[in-house]
Amino acid sequence: MQKFTEYIEFQEGNTPLLISVPHGGIKKCEVIPKRTQGILGIDGETVKIAKGLVEAIKTQNKASNLKKINPSYIISNVRRNRIDLNRKPTEAYDQNSSIAKEIYNFYHNTINNIVMSNIKLFNRSLLIDVHGFEKEKRPIGFRDVDIILGTNNLKSFFPESIPKKEWGNNIRGKIIQRFIELSIPIAPGHPTRKEYVLKGGLITKKYGASQIPRSQAMQIEFSDKIRLYDKDLRNIVLKALAEAFSDYLVGSSY
Questions:
Q1: Best-predicted range by mean pLDDT among 13-17, 158-162, 244-248?
Q2: In the chain, what are the helix, strand and coil shares in percent, each to the nearest 5?
Q3: Percent of the chain, pLDDT > 70?
Q4: Which helix (H) or strand (E) holds 180?
Q5: Of 215, 220, 199, 211, the residue nearest 254 (C-alpha)
Q6: Cis preceding linkage at 163, omega within 30
Q7: Strand partners, 11
Q8: Rounded to whole angstroms, how far apart are CA atoms 18 and 72?
Q9: Gyration radius (Cα) of the chain, Å
Q10: Which of 127, 112, 40 is nearest to 78 (CA)?
Q11: 10 Å Cβ neighbour count for 252?
């Protein structure tokens, strides 16, 4: 385990929340061959977003005089052009690299262990996979948003289909409602406009409700405006998410 600490940073907390950051690493890792296919770019400042969210949750609970809450987190320090931890193994790294395979397996084994521990201790687990997108790259005709939630069409939240009227009665729905109230554009969140929705990748699917009972997973994509350019907006977003997750963590159900 010690041999991977320069590549993977993680902490097991005391709540059913786990935050994952697979694409924010900036470590060059010359010992790992570069990937030659797929998306290779870094999701800039997503590590800072994740750590800021962890601290915002701690601050929120301290202000509310609640018990000390420490979310779990796992962060890859490896550049995405070396390993893409949100892809299946055959697409994630050079298949001739044993160290890349070991790092990949370590990341996913750690996630799995924390999720299973959460289910055992709290009878539930929620994984938030943090990513980034560039607003100017959204397809023409789609609504301009700053946050995108991906749950694989709710499959990573619920093992079976639920009525549409129940879609908002969970942490996903509460986050959407909170950002609508703050007038911060979020997708999904508009009933009549074409939505720029990224459903979520391997991590969301693998650790969500369709694969693991009592486990939920959601990908949160933050715009470059939030991550890179507007500190005030970033602080508002992190505070709103911290409030929503704090309510979830002190509750007893989904």
A1: 13-17
A2: 40, 15, 45
A3: 90
A4: helix 171-181
A5: 215
A6: no
A7: 73
A8: 5
A9: 18
A10: 40
A11: 7
Q: Going along the chain, which residue ranges are E strands?
A: 8-11, 17-21, 72-76, 125-133, 147-150, 186-187, 215-223
| Whole-angstrom distance, CA of residue 117 vs CA of residue 54 | 19
> Residue 57, CB half-sphere, CA atoms under 13 Å: how many?
26
Q: Nearest-5° angle of CA 197, CA 129, CA 191?
A: 25
Express each pLDDT in 129-152 by its tens digit.
999 999 888 878 788 899 999 998
User: What's the rounded Cα separation, in Å, for the pair 147 and 188?
Assistant: 9
Distance from C-alpha of 44 to C-alpha of 155, rounded to nearest angstrom: 28
Quick: pLDDT tens for 161-196: 777 776 667 899 999 999 999 999 999 876 656 666
Q: What's the pLDDT score for residue 251?
A: 64
Go through the domains of the chain in sequence order and give each one's CATH number. Answer: 2-250 (3.40.630.40)
The pair of three-digit structure tokens given for residue 62, joined into one six-digit string:
């301290």
Claim: this prediction has a pTM higher than 0.90: yes
The larger pLDDT score, comparing residue 106 to residue 196, is at 106
User: Structure tokens of 239?
Assistant: 């505070």
